[in-house]
Amino acid sequence: ATYELARIAKSWGDCPNKPFVVGASISVVCSTLFYDPLGDTAQAIGLITTGLALISAFYLLYISPIRGIQNTALSSLTITGLISGTMIHAPLLRGLDNGFEWTILLLTVGFSTDTGAYVIGRCFGRLKLAPSISPGKTWEGAIAGSFCGILACVVGASLLGLPISFIKSGCLGAVLAVTGHMGDLIESQLKRQAGV
Question: pTM for this one?
Fold first, then answer.
């Protein structure tokens, strides 16, 4: 993913250092092996990397391609920030109590959201969600995908025996579904800017 994002950034004239980006992203994610996923360090790193990922996404979506700012160090750091800032949460999640079950739930919700959005959007979609970014995505698909994600989270949490209430699992499913839709749109925007 890191290499692909560096290649996309290069296509609009940015100049990231690919070996640095790949190596740094792997190093940041592997750093989770050296601290307790339930400790204060993990919580601080989780918050910092989430903020870094959001700032990096903003730079890659708006500042670099639109303003024409090309800087090797800046683009390398922002690509590393976006990829490692999101991927670092997987090993942290896996290290929690019931980490395997939480990871399965996360993947199930993502799969259910995408599948529901695709199937319903393809069969019944009429209202375009963001035609300038992703012409195939529809409001009907997004709503159906969100419903599927919420349902998958509620049922999955119950079947996996996770210590979360019905209401909280529904809210978690909604947050994950909306986040998934946003991630799809961000990816589509990056590809559109790169002409892919």
Answer: 0.76
